[in-house]
């Protein structure tokens, strides 16, 4: 998979655009800036946006090309992000060290999903916020992006299970029109989640 992402991210264009995800923009506006983590951050569009809004930004992804493009984008916008080359298996941060964790289209193998989500939750401070937007299982019928394996797409029930310890948990499935770079374009079925630890 890493070869796939390095190839996609090595193109000069930003695969998913340079603008941040709209759901993230709306949700960050409700929070006081602090320490924020972006797993599976790719080319950095969302991390750079958060840095522009005065968040202390950490990110990780296994793609060397993704990191390179993310740091270029940060330099262009004159902000700083701490970007680690890491997988979900080997990433480490101090427990309860982030005020917010953001997962934007961060899909993962079904058998490892719950464990990865639990690991990420361990990095979140009590009172911290999770923001997630990803493709629902209905996205398998659309051609606007996302995994072609339905097991890697999400249902509300799966996310409720993974994040059951969160309070004020809101999970909404909706149809939307994506316009994010080359690979997220057109009608899409997404699930948006916000919760507090």
Secondary structure blueprint with pairings:
Elements: H1 2-10, H2 22-28, E1 35-39, H3 45-52, E2 56-61, H4 64-76, E3 82-85, E4 98-104, H5 110-122, E5 124-135, H6 156-162, E6 167-180, E7 184-196
Parallel strand pairs: 1-2, 1-4, 2-3, 4-5
Antiparallel strand pairs: 5-7, 6-7
Q: What are the main properties of this structure?
A:
alpha/beta, 6 helices, 197 residues, 7-stranded mixed sheet, globular
Given the C-alpha coordinates, what overall shape results? globular
Question: Which radius of gyration do the C-alpha atoms yield?
Answer: 15 Å
The class by helix and strand makeup works out as: alpha/beta
Helical percentage = 25-40%
User: How are helices and strands ordered from N to C?
Assistant: HHEHEHEEHEHEE
Low-confidence stretches are none
Counting DSSP E segments of at least 2 residues, the number of strands comes to 7
Biggest sheet architecture: 7 strands, mixed
User: Beta fraction of the residues?
Assistant: 25-35%
Counting DSSP H or I runs of 4 or more residues, the number of helices is 6
Strand order of the biggest β-sheet: 3-2-1-4-5-7-6
Mean pLDDT: 90
End-to-end distance, in Å?
31 Å
């Amino acid at each position: 998979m890493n070869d796939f992402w390095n190839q996609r991210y090595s193109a000069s264009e930003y695969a998913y655009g340079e603008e941040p995800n709209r759901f993230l923009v709306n949700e960050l506006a409700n929070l006081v800036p602090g320490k924020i983590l972006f797993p599976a951050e790719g080319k950095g569009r969302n991390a750079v946006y958060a840095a522009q809004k005065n968040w202390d930004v950490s990110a990780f992804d296994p793609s060397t090309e993704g990191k390179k493009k993310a740091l270029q984008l940060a330099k262009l916008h004159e902000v700083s992000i701490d970007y680690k080359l890491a997988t979900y298996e080997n990433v480490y941060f101090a427990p309860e060290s982030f005020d917010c964790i953001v997962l934007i289209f961060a899909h993962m193998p079904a058998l490892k999903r719950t464990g990865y989500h639990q690991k990420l939750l361990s990095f979140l401070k009590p009172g911290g916020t999770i923001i997630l937007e990803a493709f629902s299982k209905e996205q398998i019928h659309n051609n606007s992006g996302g995994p072609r394996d339905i097991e890697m797409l999400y249902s509300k029930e799966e996310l409720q299970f993974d994040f059951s310890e969160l309070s004020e948990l809101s999970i909404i499935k909706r149809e939307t029109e994506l316009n994010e770079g080359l690979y997220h374009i057109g009608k899409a079925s997404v699930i948006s989640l916000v919760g507090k630890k």
